[in-house]
């Protein structure tokens, strides 16, 4: 089975989202390195925030069916460079996390994500409330099984 790789800023909610995709609700710990779990690759947020790691992310993406760009709905900035999606040789999709958050602004999150991902699907999720998790899981399963 192919894999999908989650990328996004420190604290964007990647690991919590992965737990939610596996039906787990406990707290995620800080991701320190690439973590392979079943059909998902988790990455440390530092890899998306620091251009020094971009080559490593792109190299790892070659073994995936898709890269998921994760944007925190409660953040007012985007940590991906413009057009970042084009650097990856595989399908790229977007996920907005924490839509339950009191400071969530979904339109802003989509606008920020669109700078890195001009086209392509965007899923709206909350690991806390589980909104959007099942739909995302179904789509990702479809992608890894293609
Ligand atoms: N309100 C809310 N908070 C969330 C949600 N998902 C994650 N968080 C919080 O966001 C913080 C960071 O979550 P992580 O999943 O560790 O973030 P990460 O992207 O894996 O971070 P790194 O491993 O540092 O790259 C934690 O305090 C989570 O509790 C959500 O759906 N809603
Ligand atoms: Mg993490």
TrEMBL record:
Database matches in InterPro entries: EutP_PduV, P-loop_NTPase
Key words of the record: Nucleotide-binding
SUPFAM superfamilies, sorted: P-loop containing nucleoside triphosphate hydrolases
Membrane-spanning residues: none
Pfam families: PduV-EutP
Family that this chain belongs to: Belongs to the EutP/PduV family.
PANTHER family tied to this protein: PROTEIN YOEF (PTHR40453)
Protein name: Ethanolamine utilization protein EutP
């Amino acid at each position: 089975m192919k894999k999908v790789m989650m990328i996004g800023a420190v604290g964007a909610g990647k690991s919590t989202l992965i737990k939610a995709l596996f039906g787990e609700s406990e707290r995620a710990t800080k991701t320190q390195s690439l973590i392979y779990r079943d059909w998902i690759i988790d990455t440390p947020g530092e890899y998306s925030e620091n251009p020094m790691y971009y080559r490593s992310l792109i190299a790892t993406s070659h073994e995936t069916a898709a890269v998921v760009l994760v944007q925190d709905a409660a953040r007012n900035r985007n940590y991906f460079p413009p057009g970042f999606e084009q650097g990856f040789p595989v399908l790229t999709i977007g996920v907005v996390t924490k839509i339950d958050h009191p400071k969530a602004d979904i339109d802003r999150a989509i606008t920020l994500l669109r700078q890195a991902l001009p086209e392509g699907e965007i899923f709206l999720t909350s690991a806390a409330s589980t909104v959007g998790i099942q739909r995302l899981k179904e789509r990702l399963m479809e992608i890894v099984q293609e």
